[in-house]
Design brief:
Protein name: Replicative DNA helicase
Number of strands: 9
Pfam family, one: DnaB_C
Strand order of the largest sheet: 3-2-4-5-1-6-7-8-9
InterPro entries: DNA_helicase_DnaB-like_C (IPR007694), DNA_helicase_N/primase_C (IPR016136), P-loop_NTPase (IPR027417)
Distance between the termini: 64 Å
Domain SF4 helicase: 150-411
Order of helices and strands: HHHHHHHHEHEHHHEHEHEHHEEEE
Coiled coil: 114-141
Length: 411
């Protein structure tokens, strides 16, 4: 069957060589050298040679030791009287190649346990998933679904803070990668905690996960409890002087948080593959939010990559994941030190280490203090929004409670 698809594709190509320009095919996917060399010969002339004699001449020029004859080309062409299935055959050849590479790599990993192979395995798995999906033919359909969409009283937006939802055109949407950037000590983690709690409070049936890569689950829970109980975070960390009433509030808050559809993954989940696996286990289309704190701490299996290459891989794979599962992922990021030195309002150019943060994200937001003298005043600047508006939203940040609240309430 392997060579059969290769034979059928090559025969289809001989019937209509020009289609080589419209089909995604890589000769390296072929097992049979003879079919591979015919395809390369046709590719080399961009499918312009329609006579089998001309194609044969090109084959002999490129591969002097190829023994194929004109009669064999005629027989091959006649074995597949139509060219209409060439695209289907190309996809099957591609799938076969990917499956073989996956088997080779997994066998190698089983024998060597070389973790550098895991990234290649993950890439081929993604490639096979993409090939297995039925592609749209571009024709416009779905009128009935559109009417239902117009009638719907509910949507799949994840709501958090009202002014933020309004600016984003309804909230965070499925298939969106959101980058939130700030300098250290501005409140990225606290903002993430508030987004997580707001998402659970305002969206029925949602599952929310937070990956805290620089602290333990226990340390993160202290911050969640501080926010929900409105008890000073420092006192929760060191409760020696905490009075009984506040201890009761903290205990009640802890119990309520533990009963939410919330999971906190800590430093054990710095590997990108582990994060993706955890997300896939919990993701529900339009009803899932993952928050990763923060991108600079995520690692990949290929240790040879520099920080820029690592971040590029992280954003690319997470963006693909949001599209595949139709979920929202919020990725926290550090801003360049220049924003701290100059005190300027952050821009997209200040995203640290990689342009992929801007390129792959649907939404980019920054947290910054417009006035260092007023530590509670924080502005959330929406610097990029593919489906909403850009602008700034003033927030009040009370650090002792890890609490963010918008200064302006809409509606």
């Amino acid at each position: 069957m392997i060579n059969n698809f290769e034979m059928q594709f090559t025969a289809s190509l001989l019937n209509d060589p020009k289609q080589i320009n419209d089909i995604s095919i890589n000769p390296d996917w072929f097992i049979n050298d003879s079919f591979k060399e015919i395809v390369i010969a046709i590719q080399s002339k961009n499918g312009e040679q329609e006579l089998l004699s001309d194609i044969l001449t090109t084959i002999k020029q490129l591969y002097p030791f190829n023994n194929i004859t004109i009669d064999e080309l005629i027989m091959l062409k006649d074995s597949e009287p139509t060219s209409s299935m060439a695209d289907f055959y190309a996809i099957q050849i591609h799938k076969t190649f990917v499956r073989q590479e996956l088997k080779r790599l997994t066998d190698s990993y089983s024998a060597s346990e070389d973790e550098r192979l895991l990234e290649q395995i993950a890439d081929y798995q993604e490639e096979l998933q993409s090939l297995n999906k039925k592609k749209m033919d571009g024709s416009i359909k779905g009128y009935e679904q559109f009417i239902e969409h117009l009638k719907a009283e509910k949507n799949n937006f994840i709501k958090t803070f009202k002014p933020l939802d309004t600016s984003l055109g309804g909230g965070f949407g499925p298939g969106e990668l959101v980058v939130v950037g700030a300098r250290p000590a501005v409140g990225k983690t606290a903002f993430a905690i508030n987004l997580a709690l707001q998402s659970i409070t305002k969206n029925e049936g949602i599952a929310t996960d937070i990956f805290t890569l620089e602290m333990t689950q226990e340390q993160m829970m202290y911050r969640f409890v501080s926010n929900k109980a409105k008890v000073n975070n420092m006192q929760i960390r060191n409760p020696k002087g905490l009075d009984r009433s506040k201890k009761r509030l903290a205990a009640k808050a802890y119990q309520e948080i533990s009963e939410m559809n919330l999971r906190i993954y800590d430093q054990e989940y710095t590997q990108l593959n582990d994060i993706i696996t955890a997300i896939k286990k919990r993701a529900v289309e339009g009803k899932y939010l993952a928050i990763i704190d923060y991108v600079g701490l995520v690692s990949v299996t290929d240790s040879r990559k520099d920080q820029r290459q690592i971040i590029s891989e992280v954003t690319r794979r997470l963006k693909l994941l949001t599209n595949e599962l139709k979920i929202t992922i919020i990725l926290l990021a550090q801003l360049s030190r220049e924003t701290e030195k100059t005190g300027k309002v952050p821009t997209l150019a200040d995203l640290k280490d990689s342009g992929s943060l801007e390129q792959d994200a649907n939404i980019v937001m920054f947290l910054y203090r417009p006035d260092e003298e007023n530590r509670q005043a924080i502005k959330v600047k929406i610097a990029k929004s593919r489906d909403g508006v850009i602008g700034e939203i003033p927030f009040k940040f009370i650090g002792q409670f890890m609490d963010f609240s918008p200064e302006v309430q809409y509606g």
